Amino acid sequence: MASQPASRYLQPDWFTRTIFNPAINLLMRVGISIYGSRILAVRGRKSGQWRTTPVNLLEYQGQHYLVAPRGVTQWVRNVRAGSPAELRLGPRRWPIRLDELPDEQKPDLLRAYLRKWRWEVGQFFEGVGPEASLADIQRIAPNHPIFRISAAPAG
User: Fold this and answer.
1) What's the predicted TM-score (pTM) here?
2) What pLDDT, in 10s, does the model give residues 102-146?
3) Which is the CATH superfamily of the domain at 14-151?
4) Structure-model confidence comparison of residues 8 and 99, the more confident one
């Protein structure tokens, strides 16, 4: 588990909530992925209802990861509570297990994520980009939960 307490969260602005995310969700619901994006569905830890959000998949050294650029979002809290999760694209659904990484395993993944997705999420990384020093990457690592994706166990 990451060493950062569940606190930092950057709430989406009006444009993201009402225009950008709904447009991306619509495209993914019909099966169109933007640069590897997917819909993450996680059961609410309190409501039990499926909650969805667009996410940017990171493939790194043969593994897939989810990074929470905005910090400890509701989907992060639901995953930490043990809620079931799945990735969706069009009619396809993939049950997944998400294992949170400790901060010391994050620097290379954050660099790779920022190389691929900085154009979309760079503003959430406190001015740190993929070319930043290791010290700067380590400084922001606790603010960005990262989960390794694996197939959900059968049954």
Assistant:
1) 0.85
2) 999 999 999 999 999 898 888 889 899 999 999 999 999 999 999
3) Electron Transport, Fmn-binding Protein; Chain A (2.30.110.10)
4) 99
* Token code pair at residue 60: 């790194």
CA distance 19 to 27: 12
Amino acid at 137: I
Q: Nearest to residue 152, comparing CAs of 95, 83, 98?
A: 95
Domain range list for the chain: 14-151
Question: What are the CA-CA distances from residue 152 to residues 13, 86, 148 (Å)?
Answer: 33, 9, 12
What does the alpha-carbon distance between residue 98 and residue 134 come to, in Å, rounded to a whole number?
A: 26
Q: What angle do CA 50, 142, 15 make, to 5 degrees?
A: 50
Query: Per mean pLDDT, which range of 9-23, 28-42, 49-63, 81-95 is the poorest?
Result: 9-23
Beta bridge partners of 94: 87
Cα 3 to Cα 107: distance, rounded to the nearest angstrom: 14
Tokens of 111: 């660099």
Q: Where are the beta strands (DSSP E) in 28-121?
A: 37-43, 50-60, 63-67, 85-89, 92-100
